[in-house]
Specification:
Elements: H1 7-33, H2 38-43, H3 55-63, H4 66-97, H5 101-113, H6 122-131, H7 138-161, H8 166-174, H9 179-190, H10 192-208, H11 211-216, H12 225-229, H13 240-271
């Protein structure tokens, strides 16, 4: 039955549009001020630019060595999220399907690790990384992201794996499928909705992270985008006219990635169920 478009529905839509505009205000300030001169930016940050200083982007691109920082961020992010997602899916599947006391204890340890603040372990982390010759390297940074990202990912995969019917795995085994084949050919495709969710959550975190790279990386050629952007903020000066274009360049790839992957979350949720 067709429902009438009521005044209540119209008011609710207006309220949601207003709430959406509020969340877009920071983007306005970022984009508008990124093309202002330093004087105009300080005099009235909320105004529309009187003249567009597109050279700010060129200077920010050159000073941050953006292509190099972009490739560092891309390499660290892609490798980290693939390791986190694949290893976490495999570990969670093993814990669910082989529910021994050892696996129960390990799962409890992963859940407990989720509540430990990073600030409480960052100094020991740097010391251990130095002992293992992992400091100031992409490999060491990726291993740290794997360690910190695995607990939440395993927790998410663990709950989702329970919804996968055991009968289809047993049928695959009867047909001669190996244990690895059962996981990769049967179970893993059904984990697509959670896999995409884990990838997006970890991508947003790793791409925008500043604290861990600042602790692990010292070489200028290894700097990620957040580290390169922070070079505009000194003890006595803050180059906002260059920092804002650098921030815009830094968040643009991850925003595009999120918008592109958003449809796969919806498709995965609607099509990821098992059909009899």
């Amino acid at each position: 039955m067709k429902r009438d478009y009521s005044v209540k529905t119209f008011a609710l839509e207006l309220l949601m549009i207003a709430a959406g505009l509020v969340f877009l205000v920071p983007f306005y300030f970022l984009l508008a001020n990124s093309v202002k001169s330093f004087g105009d930016l300080l005099s009235n940050a909320a105004s529309w630019p009187s003249t567009f200083e597109w050279s700010n982007y060129q200077r920010a691109w050159e000073i941050t060595r953006f292509p190099e920082a972009f490739m560092n961020s891309l390499l660290v992010t892609v490798v980290s999220i693939l390791l986190i997602a694949i290893i976490s899916a495999m570990a969670a599947y093993r814990m669910v399907r082989h529910n021994s006391r050892t696996n129960q204890f390990l799962f409890m340890m992963f859940v407990a690790a989720m509540v430990i603040p990073f600030q409480s372990v960052m100094i020991p982390l740097v010391k251990v990384a130095g002992w293992l010759d992992l400091a100031d390297s992409r490999t060491g940074l990726i291993m740290c992201y794997l360690g910190f990202g695995a607990p939440l990912s395993i927790f998410l995969f663990h709950g989702f794996t329970k919804s996968v019917p055991l009968e289809i795995e047993e049928a695959a085994v009867v047909d001669g499928c190996t244990p690895y084949g059962v996981f990769w050919k049967i179970v893993f495709p059904l984990l697509k909705p959670m896999f995409v969710t884990v990838v997006i959550l970890n991508s947003l975190w790793i791409w925008n992270d500043y604290l861990l790279p600042s602790l692990m990386l010292q070489s200028a050629e290894l700097r990620t985008i957040p580290l390169a952007t922070y070079s505009f903020f000194g003890q006595y000066t803050k180059q906002w006219d260059l920092a804002l274009p650098a921030l815009t360049l830094g968040i643009l790839p991850i925003v595009i990635f999120f918008l592109a992957m958003q449809k796969y979350i919806i498709e995965g949720i609607t099509a990821g169920s098992v059909k009899g």
